């Protein structure tokens, strides 16, 4: 009963074998999948995937890398789509200072607009954070994001940052990087995160866990993340799966 809380199965990397990838996920014990739409291109295909499979859900949001392209019409469109029964969160949204494809002030504005929309609609948010820990925390605090909470997707920060995020009603999610042998900080943070605040994900087709690192990631591999997390937490795989799935069900209102 595992849940992959962040994947991109609508990505072109899966065009040739998407159904097989989804079947392998089911065979690996994944019962629910949250697929992420993040711009004009990916949002419609993400929702279409959720409509096709009853155990797949979708998010809708505008990625910080694409922030410079988002218009007021796009924000209205996202708001309309949030009424779809399979749309469970706004995201992924946030700040990305690594790729720097959109000006920081534009990223900031687009991020804040979507948090305000989430608060208006009462929906959780999925946060993308790349090299922007301080500014992410500041925006979340100023925009009262704790009113809706959400998830820090593929968390890469310190324990101090994780504590601040949890204080603002956010779950901490880990993906493939926590399985890497040199991933000292992610493992230490995961060990300290309370079980009722923990989520797992793949971010497929990216961030493939060990031992498949360097190859295309897929949702079935969330089991590898779960096994690592269970070992770090001193739990059985079943205990870890049950807790993280319940967290996802509660946070996103899944069936």
From TrEMBL:
Pfam families in the record: TatD_DNase
Entry superkingdom: Bacteria
Chain residues that bind a divalent metal cation 1: 6, 8, 92, 203
Keywords linked to the UniProt accession: Exonuclease, Hydrolase, Metal-binding, Nuclease
Transmembrane segments: none
GO CC field: cytosol
GO molecular function: DNA nuclease activity; exonuclease activity; metal ion binding
Keyword Membrane: no
Gene3D superfamilies, alphabetized: Metal-dependent hydrolases
InterPro entries cross-referenced by the UniProt entry: DNase_TatD-rel_CS, Metal_Hydrolase, TatD-like, TatD/YcfH-like
UniProt key word Nuclease: yes
SUPFAM superfamilies: Metallo-dependent hydrolases
Residue numbers binding a divalent metal cation 2: 128, 153
Name of the featured protein: YchF/TatD family DNA exonuclease
Species for this entry: Paenibacillus foliorum
Lineage of the species this protein comes from: Bacteria, Bacillati, Bacillota, Bacilli, Bacillales
């Amino acid at each position: 009963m595992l849940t992959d809380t962040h994947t991109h199965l609508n990505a072109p990397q899966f065009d040739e074998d998407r159904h097989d990838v989804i079947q392998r996920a089911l065979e690996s014990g994944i019962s629910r999948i949250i697929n992420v739409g993040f711009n004009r291109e990916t949002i419609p295909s993400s929702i279409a995937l959720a409509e096709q499979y009853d155990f797949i859900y979708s998010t809708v949001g505008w990625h910080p890398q694409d922030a410079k392209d988002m218009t007021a019409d796009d924000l209205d469109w996202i708001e309309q789509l949030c009424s779809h029964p399979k749309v469970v969160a706004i995201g992924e949204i946030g700040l990305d200072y690594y790729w720097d494809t959109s000006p920081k002030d534009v990223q900031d504005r687009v991020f804040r607009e979507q948090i305000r929309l989430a608060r208006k609609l009462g929906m959780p948010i999925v946060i993308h954070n790349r090299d922007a820990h301080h500014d992410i925390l500041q925006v979340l605090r100023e925009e009262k994001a704790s009113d809706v909470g959400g998830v820090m997707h593929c968390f890469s920060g310190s324990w101090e940052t994780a504590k601040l995020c949890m204080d603002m009603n956010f779950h901490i999610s880990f993906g493939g990087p926590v399985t890497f042998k040199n991933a000292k900080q992610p493992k230490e943070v995961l060990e300290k995160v309370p079980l009722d605040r923990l989520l797992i994900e793949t971010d497929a087709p990216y961030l493939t866990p060990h031992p498949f690192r360097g190859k295309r990631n897929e949702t079935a591999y969330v089991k590898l993340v779960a096994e690592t997390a269970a070992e770090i937490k001193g739990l059985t795989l079943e205990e870890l799966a049950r807790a993280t799935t319940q967290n996802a069900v509660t946070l996103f209102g899944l069936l």
